[in-house]
Amino acid sequence: MKILGIGNAIVDVLCKVDDSFLTKNSLTKGTMKLIDEIKFKTLMSSLKIEDTVSGGSIANSIVGLSQLGNDVGFIGKVSDDNLGQKYEDGLKKEKVNYLYKKSKEPIPTGSCLILITPDSERTMCTYLGTAGKINENDIDEKIIKESEITFLEGYLWDEGGPKKAFNKAINNSKTVAMSLSDLFCVERHKPQFLDLVKNKLDIIFANEQEILSLIDSNIFSDVISFSKSLNKNIVITRGDKGAISIKNAEVIECLAQKNLKIKDLTGAGDLFAAGFLHGLINKMNTKDCLNKGTELSAKIIQKVGARI
């Protein structure tokens, strides 16, 4: 395979609701809330499922890469239950090699309940389930060694099992890429993420907020200096300021696309990474990699959902 993704395996469950449902269940429109299994089942008991999508940040990137014609795979922990089967089926439908052998876990498959109101707003309730319980036994080092790039997500990193899974993947990879995923993740795991960026990763994806937080600065020129000091490829998205790649002393920028009819920002970073990595594995130059990432992220924010 060209690229193997390892990340949270979360089934997006899409349901249409009216505003009174949000009020009744004390949910704030347009936000994401972590919930437990009991709350998830309670909410689901009065809803009709419109669609299910195999989601998660890295999974979104891997599907994007597959849609561009690349041979890719994904490892993410699910249980052998109804949603776990839907997750596997969803990735296979997108021609992604799903490389996790599911079994009956004590905790169900992770799910994100996406509640769509008549104004097209999306309110999310996420139950992580077994997705965050990945461990080194779930990682097949033979598959890692046969892939050109292993792509990890910061959302998945945690002490214990996930850390051991990360280390096994990193130690057996030819090239390791990782997305810092979220400002909350960076602030929660800053010393560990800084160690990963400095010592273990080859390609790092971050947005401007995340990378500034990582180096404890609010000046972007500090990011340039920090990145130049590493023998890495640091790729940063900057919203309407475009995107930038810093590798050794080389700094290459790409402008953001203008006049977009933005509908939903879900998946913007995930699809940017997909476009950049597509360029990389197809031997494009850095500028063209940035342009491809920008093209895909511009497409995804002009439609609802994280599928091109």
Layout of SSEs?
Blueprint: E1 3-6, E2 10-16, H1 19-24, E3 32-34, H2 37-44, E4 49-55, H3 57-67, E5 72-75, H4 82-93, E6 97-98, E7 110-116, E8 122-127, H5 141-145, E9 149-153, H6 161-171, E10 176-179, H7 183-188, H8 190-199, E11 203-207, H9 208-214, H10 220-228, E12 233-237, E13 243-247, E14 250-254, H11 268-281, H12 286-300
What does this structure look like?
The protein has 308 residues and is an alpha/beta fold. The chain has a single domain (3-8, 56-106, 131-300), classed as 3-Layer(aba) Sandwich (UDP-N-acetylmuramoyl-L-alanine:D-glutamate ligase). Helices cover 37% and strands 22% of the residues. It contains twelve helices and 14 strands. The protein has a nine-stranded mixed beta sheet with strand order 6-5-1-9-10-11-12-13-14, sandwiched between helices. Strands 3-8-7-2-4 form a five-stranded mixed beta sheet. Helix 3 (57-67) packs across helix 11 and helix 11 packs antiparallel against helix 12. The radius of gyration is 19 Å and the shape is globular. The model has no long low-confidence stretch (mean pLDDT 93).
